[in-house]
Structure formats: C-alpha cells, structure tokens
Amino acid sequence: MSDLPVDRPVAGPPAERLARRLETRPTIAQVLHELGRLDLSVYRAIAATPTPTLDEPLRRISEVASRSKLSLGIAAAMAIVGGRTGRRAALTGVAALATNSVAVNLAAKLSIRRGRPDPAAAGVPEARRVEMPSSPSFPSGHAASSFAFAEAVAETMPVLAGPLRVLAAIVAYSRVHTGVHYPGDVIAGSLIGSSIGEGVGFVGRAINLHRC
Prior knowledge:
- The chain is an all-alpha fold.
- It starts with 12 loop residues before the first helix and ends with a helix.
- The chain has helices at 13-24, 28-48, 52-64, 69-81, 83-112, 119-122, 141-156, 161-177, 183-211.
- The chain is globular.
C-alpha cells in the first residue's frame, strides 16, 4: 500500500509548471493598475510640456464643444445649406448625439465612476484650464459625442468624414490638454462614440434606402 496521503494529489512536473504559470500570470487588477500608472504618466507629460501657442485655441475649442454645441452648430449649418442630403445627415448626426448621451452619461460614467485628474498637482498651466466637470472622468463625453457625430454624418455625407474626424480628434485631445481628462478617458470615449455613430448612421442609411 502506498505511503502517500490519499487526500493530497501528487504534484508532478506538469502540475508544477501550471502552478508557476498561474502564480506569474498578471491579474486583471494588476493590469488595470499598470494602465492607470501609464495613463497618469502621459497626462503629467502633456501637462509639463510648454505649448503657449496651442493653449488658448485648445481651451476655446474644448469649451465650445461642451454640451455638443459645436456638433449641433455644424448640424444646423448642414441642414440650412446642404439641401436634402444635408438635412438627412444633420438628423442622423443629432440622433447619434442623443444615443451617445444615454450610453455614455447615463450608463458608462455612472457604472465606472472614475475620479477626475488633479490638474494643479500635475502642473497643468492656468492658461489651459477649463472648468472641471462634476461628472465621472471615464469615458470622455466630449470625445464620444464628437466621434459619434462625425461617424454618423459620414454615413450620409462621406465628403465630410475626414474634416469631422480631424475635428473630433482635436476636441478629444483638448480634454487632456486642458487637464480635465486622462488620455485613457478620451481613447475610450472616441472608440465608444465611433461605434455608436457608425451604428446610428447604418440604421439611418437603411431607413432612407427603404423609403426610396
């Protein structure tokens, strides 16, 4: 009869290798912690880089883009001068903004509740700063709404895809530059907004083809 205890399995070489792998495999918490440190490092690097020529324009565009005022203004211009196609693109863009607002502000932000960065501690120059929102930091609503609008409009008016995407990228970056968001916030917001905009644009195009 074996002298090995019956209630303990024999740990052979394969089992030992598996155990070592499990011990060294990073956990989700570790990955998120390291990503957070990287996020903070990039945020501080941007804050510490002198850009006096860019500070005022980026601060202004960040403020104008609040509450989707910039996108709504573009939608109004398209509706006025763009004819039937412009009106359809404007309507699709506004629908994407509404959908994005629900998804980001009422779902993502309230679920994750990431705290805002501290611009003073990071050394963000006073000339760059805008009013710090009271909402959670993740994801960036400005980035999400700008890309949602750009992608939705692009489905109807492809000629505007490039300019609107560039504008959305500037708006997204401005939120980091002015100190109210971490880079990860705007990256996530841009991806979420793009997905929403593409989805709304696809539905709008399908409805228009059905009517035709």
